[in-house]
Every structure is written in C-alpha cells, then in structure tokens.
Amino acid sequence: MSDATRSAGFDTPTTIALRELRRSRSAIVGAAIMAVLLLIALFAPLIAPYDPIAIDPSVSLQGPSGRHWMGTDDFGRDILSRVLYGTRISLRVGIIAVGIGGSIGLLIGLAAGYIGGWFDFIAMRAVDVLLSFPGILLALLIMTVLGPSLTNVMIAVGISNVPLYVRLVRGTVLSAKESGYVEAARGTGCSHLTIVVKHIVPNIIAPFIVVTTLEVANAILLSATLSFLGMGAQPPTPEWGAMLNEGRRYIRTAWWMITFPGLMIMLSVLGINLLGDGLRDALDPKLSE
Amino acid sequence: MGRHLIRRIVAAVPVLLGIVTVTFLVLHLLPGDPATAMLGFHATEARANVLREELGLNDPLPVQYVRYIGNTLRFDLGRSMSKRRPVHELIAEQIPATVELAIAGMGCALLLGLVLGVVAATHRGRWLDTGAMAVSLLGVSMPSFWLGLILILVFSVQLRWVPILGVGGGLVRLILPAIALGFRSAAMIARLVRSSVLEVLRQDYVATARAKGLTERVVVYRHALRNALIPVVTVMGLQFGRLLAGSVVIENVFGREGIGTLLVQAIQVQDIPVVQGVVLVTGVAYVVVNLLVDLSYTLLDPRVRFS
C-alpha cells in the first residue's frame, strides 16, 4: 500500500479480502484444519511413531491400543503412522495435479480468450467434449493409457481438470479484453505480452485462486478413488485410497483399517472446502452468486 | 419452441462426435504398438499381427477413424478380448443393473436433498438449519466409496440388517449402494433447495398466499416449493450423469454387477475395446440425459422458451 493511499484511508483489494476472510468463521476453521494437515505432512517423519511400511507379523490386525492408537493392518504396520504419511502423499498429489491442470488450462484459456478466432473455436469445442465426460470417467480413460502409478494419477487428475480452467480463464479474459484499461494499454503501444501479463492476468487471479483451492479437494477425492480402484498408488505406499482398498478385505474383523484413512480424506476435503468457500466470498463474491 | 429444440439437438451433435473421437484416440495413444500394449509384452509377433489385422490397425488412421464412426453408428463396438464376445452385448447385459442403481441413487439424493433443504430454509438461522447444512457439508466432503464401506460396516457387519455384498434380492440389496451413491448429490441438492426456497419465500405471491390466511405448510409446499424446484431439475441432469459415472466405484464397493464393474475389469486386463465401448456409452448417455433435462427445463420455465 502506498503512503498516499494509507494516509487517505483507502484499503487495497488484498486488505479488504483478508479482512473478509478473517470475518468468515468457516474460512478460519478450514484454514486451521489445513494448517494442521500441512504441519502433519511436513513433519510426518518426526511425529509418526513407527515406520509406515515396516512389517511386523506379530502385531497384525490389532485394534486401537496405547501402543498403536489407530491399530495395525494385516502386515502389522501401524495405521496411525501410515495415515500421517498418507497426508503428505495426498496433499502432494492434490496440489501437483491441480498445478498441472491449472497451468495448462491457464495457458490455453489465455490464448483462446485473447487470440480468439479459430484457436478459440477449436479449444472451446474440445472443452465441450471433455466436459461432457464425468471427471472420474476421463481420469479412468487416461489411466488406461498411462497405466497404474501415483505419478500417472497426478497426470490423469491434472488433465481432467484442464477443461474447467480453460473455460474459467477464457471467460475472464474475454470480459477483461473489452475493458477500458486494456484499450488504454493498447493505445499507449503496449505489446500483446505486456497487456496479457500486466493487465489481464491480474484480473484472473481472484477466481483462479478460488477455483484452484476447491479443485485441490476434488483432486484429493479423485486420486483417492483411483487408488481405491487399484489404479493409483501401489502397495506398500501409505496412500489413503489404497489403504481403504487393502482394508476392505478385513471389514468383518478390522474396522479400524477402513475408518481412519477415510476420516482423513473427509477431513482434508472438508478443510479445503471451508477455506475455499471463505476465499470465494472474500475474493470473488460474483462466483458465490 | 420447435426452433429451440432443434438448435439444442444440433448443438449436441459435435459433442457426440467429439466423444466418439476421444474414445477412438485412446487405442492410438497407448504407448508403443497398440496390439502389443493390449496383449502384454510377452505376446508373440504372430499373435500381435493377428490382432492388428482383427482391429484393422494396418489401415491408414483416417480409414480406421471413418470405419470406427460407421461401426459405432451401427452399434458395433468391437469384440472383447478377454471375454471373446461383442462389446455391445456385454454392455447391454450390464446397463440395467447400473441404471437401476443410478435411479435408486437419484431417488435417495432427491428425497434426502429436498427434506434437508426445505427443513433448513423453513428454520433459517435456527439449529435445524445449522444441522441440515452441516450434514450437507459432510456429504460433499465424504468420498462415496468410504461412505459405502462405513454403511456395510454398520448395517451389514455390526447390525446384520442388510446382506453384506450384492447378494440377496429386491430393494433391500439396493438400499445401501443407493445411499452411498446418492449422498453427495443429496448434499448439493439440499444447498440448492435451501437457497432456492429462501429466494421464493421472499416473493410477493408468497406474501399474498400468507395474507389469504393459508397455513405455512400450504404456503411452503404448494406455492414456494413448486417454483423453487425449477433450478433443482437442471441440476438433476448433471447429477444423474455423475451418478452414472459414480456407480463405477459403488458397484466395486458392493460387489455389484454393472457397467462400472465391467469397465474396471476391462482396464485391469487392458481390454481396450470394452473400455472404449463403456466410456462411449456412458459419455453419450451423459450428453443425452443433459439434453433431455435441458428440454424439460424449457417446458417448465416459459422464460427460457421465449428468450
């Protein structure tokens, strides 16, 4: 904020957004959940009581106890340690997948909206087609081509996110392109690159951040689903969806194997949704209408 | 009205063609030679050659593309490599189970969504509103396959009320999968119904209905809810498509038959013609359902028809 602005008592959009965010109770709860999960992800090796892939047949399928707070699985591995390490994997998968989808979608959306013409027409028809596949189906199709692995899950979930971003970015570019300040920039002889980077992209940031936050939740859900179906993380990786897949064989005898990984997925998605809703109200009220 | 109908149908044609193109490309995007990829790397060259000939992979790509479109229009989706049967037969056999599950899931989603939404709207700001919206928030955050597992754990393993997997007959067999499948949609419908009913309750004609001395129940159910349902119908189309796709996972959790189970099995053994067929049929169904909902929306709301 410049001194002149501050002395005149004006608030910048960032200050207003932060104030709105602090007022939203759900955003604070969401941010708190996410802060805890991020800390768990960062410090998993320090806080996990056991090695998440160390096998100990002498303690297999034990219920929650003082030694193993969330019990053990069929290989005697500590569920709590696996769940804690799983936070690291799921958040990474969610963030990288959305990073892939968001960056490709941003580039295509910017180009389609700004260049227009044939490129826009073809890009939008492709988006229409891809959006007509439900996300899980598109991801499964991509996984068929790529084969099962956690890296491929990130790519599949990322690519299935691209159409959503293209549509969002293109729409914002189209309206920004017609605005007075872009006309003015053009009039002063700014290059296309300068106009896009300095004048159009800042307009996209607010809806982009909101959608990206909410999409991380969807990416975590989708990647857990793919791992649950045996197409993502492979044993012994402590990924929540894969853990649920392993646990369902013991549903009659070991309820803890299917309870805790699922709770973690729900908690992370809930945290992101609450935070995303708060961000949406603070940054881009139009999106919530 | 007629023109709008024709315009919507014509607009769906390129999307349908795009879906056919995407499923066609899957085979050609497989790493390396598609025949070897489908047979596994231990396959002999002779066997790969036979498969290449069988699938017409030796022809130029445009020829293969035109043939694929022609075959698709004749409902010829190729032959399953693992089951040695025409793909359209396999899909036709499995569709009823999936549609049954999707309809049951939709019923569940509507019932639960409407009740939660109306209760929340009519008790705005009170604990019932907070409770209903908390349930809805949990619904959108909960993975459907995990809810399925928890339902099995509670109602089949602990309470023994419902048979554990897809065994047993009739409606009982459908209850748990339908709840697991429909809960997320119910949560979304509940949010929509709540805001929609609140919006309608502010309208003048509702005030008039109240002024006439009608009971609150009649005002809400006969006057407000009917109009509040219009946006719900639009969302139902999208939700039905999602439920069709979501059944892939739920069928797997409950060990049910259906095109979802067929798809997952086909992916595991790289039975590409089946994968292409199932994705094609589901994608087309998704577009057709949305088109039908769009058209029904036009009938429900004259403003769309004449705009």
List the helices and strands and how they pair.
The complex is a heterodimer of chains A (289) and B (307).
Chain A: H1 3-8, H2 13-23, H3 25-47, H4 79-115, H5 117-131, H6 135-146, H7 150-177, H8 180-187, H9 192-228, H10 240-247, H11 255-283, H12 285-288
Chain B: H1 2-29, H2 34-39, H3 45-55, H4 61-73, H5 87-122, H6 127-141, H7 144-158, H8 172-201, H9 204-211, H10 216-254, H11 259-268, H12 272-300, H13 302-306
Helix pairs in contact in B: 1-4, 1-12, 5-6, 5-8, 5-10, 5-12, 6-8, 7-8, 7-10, 8-10, 9-10, 10-11, 10-12, 11-12
Describe the structure.
The complex is a heterodimer of chains A (289) and B (307). With 289 residues, chain A is mainly α. Chain A has helices spanning 3-8, 13-23, 25-47, 79-115, 117-131, 135-146, 150-177, 180-187, 192-228, 240-247, 255-283, 285-288. The longest helix of chain A has 37 residues, at 79-115. The two termini of chain A are 30 Å apart. Chain B is 80% helix and 0% strand. The relative contact order of chain B is 0.14. Chain B is flat, with a radius of gyration of 24 Å. Chain B contains 13 helices and no strands. Chain B is mostly helical. In chain B, α8 runs antiparallel to α10 and α10 (216-254) runs antiparallel to α12 (272-300). At the A-B interface, α5, α6, α9, α10 and α11 of A face α1, α6, α7, α10 and α11 of B.
Question: Gist?
Answer:
With 289 residues, chain A is mostly helical. Chain A has helices at 3-8, 13-23, 25-47, 79-115, 117-131, 135-146, 150-177, 180-187, 192-228, 240-247, 255-283, 285-288.
Q: What are the salient characteristics of this protein?
A:
heterodimer, A: MetI-like fold, B: 307 residues, mainly alpha, 80% helix, flat
